[in-house]
Amino acid sequence: MSAAAAGWLQVGLLVLALALVHRPLGDWMARVFRTPATVSDTSPRARSWRRDGGHWRVERLVYRAVGVDADGEQRWPTYLRSVLAFSLVSVLFLYLLQRVQQWLPLDDGMPAVGQGSAWNTAVSFVTNTNWQGYAGESTMGHLVQMAGLAVQNFLSAAVGLAVAIALVRGFARTRTDRLGNAWVDITRAVTRILLPLSVLAAVVLVLGGVVQNLSAGTDATTLSGATQFLPGGPVASQEAIKELGTNGGGFFNANSAHPFEGPSAWISLFEVFLLLVIPFSLPRTFGRLVGDKRQGFAILGVMVSLAAVSLALTSWAQARAGGAALQLAGAATEGQEVRFGGPLSALFGTATTLTSTGAVNAQHDSFTPSGGLLTMANMMLGEVAPGGVGSGLYGMLVLAVIAVFVAGLMVGRTPEYLGKKLGRREMTLASLYVLTTPAIVLVGTAVAMSVDAGRSSMLNSGPHGLSEVLYAFTSAGNNNGSAFAGLSANTPFYDVALGLAMAFGRFVPIVLVVALAGRLAAQGRTPVTAGTLPTHRPLFVGLLTAVVLVVVGLTYFPVLSLGPLAEGLS
Amino acid sequence: MSTLRSGRQLVAAVRALLLATVVLGLVYPLLVTGFAQLVAPGRADGSLVSRDGEVVGSSLVGQAFVDAAGDPLPQYFQSRPSASDYDGAASGGSNLGPNSPELVDLVTTRRAEVASFNGVAPSEVPADAVTASASGLDPGISPAYAAIQVARVAADRGVPAAEVAALVATATHGRDLGVIGGPYVNVLELNLALDREFGAEG
Prior knowledge:
Number of strands of chain B: 5
Helix content of chain A: 55-70%
Number of strands of chain A: 4
Strand order of the largest sheet of chain A: 1-2
Distance between the termini of chain A: 35 Å
Number of helices of chain A: 21
Strand content of chain B: 5-15%
Shape of chain B: extended
Shape of chain A: globular
Helix content of chain B: 40-55%
Order of helices and strands of chain A: HHHHHHHHEEHHHHHHHEEHHHHHH
Largest sheet of chain B: 3 strands, antiparallel
Strand content of chain A: under 5%
Oligomer: heterodimer
């Protein structure tokens, strides 16, 4: 069988698995985030469920330990404060943990992480970015990996889910100032979705050969008599939530390309499945919660179209050896593993940049010029096809608001989405959301290129050097975390600058989304009339897709033409 | 008022984080570790390979088959170039761009070296033989790269090429389920089989 045919068949396997899982998982997530206020039937079971709030016993213990009233719903400012307080405390704790790791057990002799790197890493993991300025196997002891980094893999994904659900509730509810309870949403995201799925995934990974122990590593004496260090660690448990939570921070420097994180091709494909499964199931959850499954299909339709085009282009680009060095080699095998091969490397690269994951099974810096450009363009889309856990859905819904507004301008009507009027304030919040990330990426890149500290970290020169810096800020601002890893990013300048880009790129959009949710929930619902734009039809799917592409195209085209485009044409 | 409420949220946040650290940061990974060590201890510990009671590597991790000076050992099949020289403590790729002049030089030099070492024409050297992997620890080479090494290994060991080729076939892994990934030859597995079959000293 030809490599290309096998490549497309493995994509078929992946699509089949996602198609089978997205319905039950999407429905389940909708049940998880139902609240008594949204259940209206009068069966005895529903009545008793309303009385006890539908909490599991173990969750009640959590709420008691945390000291929150799980049955009290929050207004949007309080919801936001809960989310931000949780994230702030998480950054401080993770920073501290890295700074004192030499005194903790299981440190494997690793010294304390430096100030700049510890700040960068703390922000990186709490914001679901998992940008890594450090090399895992030579920086982090097992305890920091388990109790620090992996914990944030869970919590940052849970926070993303909670914010997305809050926005969905804004559309689903009418005339209320309540959005739900952030502590309940975060807790349930962990206890009912992320933790059970992670356990299942970790079991599969262990059986597939991913390492899972507490050993400091083994020294082997190779056939030629040299000593080779073989690291150990709780890798499978972290790998599971790293992909499932669209985090992407590798236990080892080589990330999912490392034989102990990605021992075989089928495990690597399974990892692609894990990082896509929640984001692709969330449109179903959205449809369920707003009481119209067709709305979810429309959103899913946009995500799938964009992802399919991107995958086709990247696979095509990577199958051709672009660039002088790769042409000389005969194929784009630099930075790729033989057991994965070209098609699976392109698939992983596409999936990881379309979500906010950033895990890699090949080195994007060595992709062909057009392949590298596409991974960057995927992130620039704002990571909405399907995007990160939670963040993908709320990003796409904000873009849907913009699309409805554009359509409203064309026909001269007040725009409405799901029966909610989109007035000046709603549009201000949505527009600020769309502008935030490009502002961070472009200003960040411009600052880096204008100071010596920024330029001196580039490994490659010319347009490819600019691409490295642009990729770094795109990755940080969009909370992706993958890299054109030639850039030496573990310098004081990049530790601080990228840390700020990640923090603003995560929390400014969250503030805007929760505020938007609050305004939407407070509104009544406008009845559907003959003049209402239907938002579940192919026309709207096309419009939304076009809006996503145009917004990105206009924003990033100039800088892309200086970097990867110039390189591809030279 | 607002400050007070934020204070309450911060207290809740601290408690929630501590609880999460214990449950997700300790209980979860330790349970998975317990399961792994019980059900699949060999895989959980890195699929280590031993010979005569001594750990010689991992069947998942590639290694360099070179002498102390760094020159390739002719009795062994050679792994791909590695950006980290197969150092297990420093995984990673070269990260050189597709147009990098440095990578152009590297590819040119490697092609000449591989061709002359194996006595084949430079055009017969496949791409994976002249490019570094993503992890620096790639356990595999393409079947094409293995094929051009058969005659050299057989000649050095003084054994029939057909017997070496048979061992290559045994160490060749097809695509998973017939479609996932790429076919590869596990080099460590192959070289261990050579030593077993024809003696370790070549």
